[in-house]
Amino acid sequence: MQLERARIDRRFATMPGAVPSANGAVVTFRDEWSTVAQVFDLAKLGLSPELTMLFADAFRVHYAGAAIATRKGCWKALRTFARFVAQDGAITVPANLTTQAIGRYILWLDRQSSSTGEPWSISTRYGRFVDVKMLLTWAMRNRPGRLPTSLSFPLNPFPGRHRTPVPRRLSALQLKAILSACYAEIDAERKDFKEGRHRDAPQSKKPRRSSIDPIVPLFLAIGIQTAANPEALRLIRRDCLAPHPLDENRVVIDWAKPGAGGEVRRAQRRSFDRRRLHAAPNLIERVAAITEPLVGQARPSERNHLFLVRGNRPVGVGTIRHATLRIGIQRFIARANARIAAWNNAHPDKPRALLPNFAPVLFRGSVATEHYHAAGGDIRAAQTVLITPALIRPISMSEDRRRGSCKKRQLRVFKG
Fold first, then answer.
1. 248 and 389 share a domain?
2. Are 237 and 255 in contact (CB under 8 A)?
3. Residue 348's CB: how many other CB atoms inside 10 A?
4. Within this chain, do residues 131 and 179 fall inside the same structural domain, yes or no?
5. In a 3-state reduction of DSSP, which class is residue 74?
6. Are both 135 and 191 inside the same structural domain?
7. What is the pLDDT of residues 317-340, one digit of tens each?
8. What is the CB-side half-sphere exposure of residue 138 using CA atoms within 13 A?
9. Global model pTM greater than 0.70
10. Short-list 145, 48, 174, 158, CA closest to 110
């Protein structure tokens, strides 16, 4: 007897949290777990329906694989461009987006100023321009006939943007002062944590601190010790520690640089002696212990990230965002300088210098410069800190001859 099996519904189910887009003006981006990551409603820009659909189409497709921060930058550019369109009054349909209109937009950007009355910086003006250029370029290539074929963009609309500024560096004394302030807060947090395990919470009279405050000094200390790219450090994974293949007292920290594309040759790897109390591996384990309760609350794509915090807007629990980190660093500087000021009042004969207003992007070049000076001007010392690849590929015989060597080097060199 043949049994009738129930028909399988093979239609794609609507994911929870999805935002319907009846008119196509809502652009929804999802992460690799199909969770809604970002939603942008271009109907709020106030553009005409034709312009709204043009930009929504380009935004949805061209920025599908972009980073969250990149999409947010594009959204800011679209909001700025919409403000220009409203003031210009001559752009209502895509056919009005001519080269002359682009020129008016550039001049309009040059006239903008901040809330303090200062003119927009070159980088801000360029950021508001380049994303609009990318969207219009995509539309010209993929939606022929909707834009003028003669639309062109100037090569250098904001002169001076590519001018190389004098690099800012932190001195050795400033780096040591920042590390000292970091270690002071890390030790105090560790002491409070240990004492908190043996006392009831209501007995504690200390003010409640933000969940970000214990993470920031750890982030800064790890960043200085490793001379890490701040973006790579922000996204470092929880499984970044590995045992050293030769020395049992050393631990290897391994993370991929931004844009590495998963290639092993672009991974950054350095080893540290973990017998030091404040060694980077020990600090990483401390971060992992603090953020462990947040792992289950983060979105799946970020659960393996080390620096998880509560309070990221608008996503809540997740990898610490740039703005959240910046606010946390300012709070850290204020706390540290308050302690230094109290010390200087109590010890006028032994004053300490206040912490400078710094950003993690300064650590990498500053640490490399100090290694360069300490090595007596040996550039290889700085290269060891900055590059340190996990694997160096084999050198071919043709390359070997060009370097003037007669030996055949076929070995893979591991740098731990």
1. yes
2. yes
3. 8
4. no
5. helix
6. no
7. 889 988 889 999 999 999 999 999
8. 17
9. no
10. 158
Quick one: pLDDT at residue 411?
A: 30
Residue 366 inside a domain? The answer is: yes
Residues spanned by the domain of 77? 26-142
Helix orientation angle between 122-142 and 68-88, rounded to the nearest 10 degrees = 90
Quickly count: other Cβ atoms within 10 Å of residue 85's Cβ: 22
Task: Report if residue 13 sits inside a domain.
Answer: no
pLDDT beneath 70: ranges in the chain: 1-6, 9-23, 162-167, 195-210, 256-268, 312-315, 387-416
Pairing of β 308-312 and β 316-319: antiparallel
Of 102, 158, 161, the C-alpha closest to 134 is 102
Q: State the Cα–Cα distance between residues 408 and 198, nearest whole angstrom.
A: 63
CA gap 340, 406 in Å, rounded: 60
pLDDT in tens, 265-320: 455 678 899 999 999 999 999 999 999 999 999 988 889 999 999 876 656 788 99
Whether 321 and 383 map to the same domain: the answer is yes
- pLDDT for 128: 96
Residue 282 lies in a domain: yes
Distance CA 55, CA 26 (A): 11
Work out how many domains the chain is built from and give that number. 2
For residue 308, what are the contacts with CB-CB under 8 A and spacing of at least 6?
291, 294, 295, 298, 302, 317, 318, 319, 320
CA 75 to chain centre: 17
Domain assignment of residue 164, yes or no = no
Per DSSP bridges, beta strands 241-243 and 250-256 are antiparallel
Instruction: Identify the CATH number of the domain in which residue 252 sits.
Output: 1.10.443
In the numeric block, the tokens 């060891």 are attached to: 384
Alpha-carbon span 401 to 403, nearest angstrom = 5
Is 327 in the same domain as 231? Answer: yes
pLDDT given at position 115:
84
Residues whose CB falls within 8 Å of the CB of residue 50, separated by 6 or more in sequence, listed in order: 92, 93, 94
Contacts of 144 (CB under 8 A, 6+ apart): none
| In a shared domain, residues 179 and 315 | yes
> In whole angstroms, what is the distance from residue 344 CA to residue 353 CA?
9
Residues 190 and 133 in one domain: no
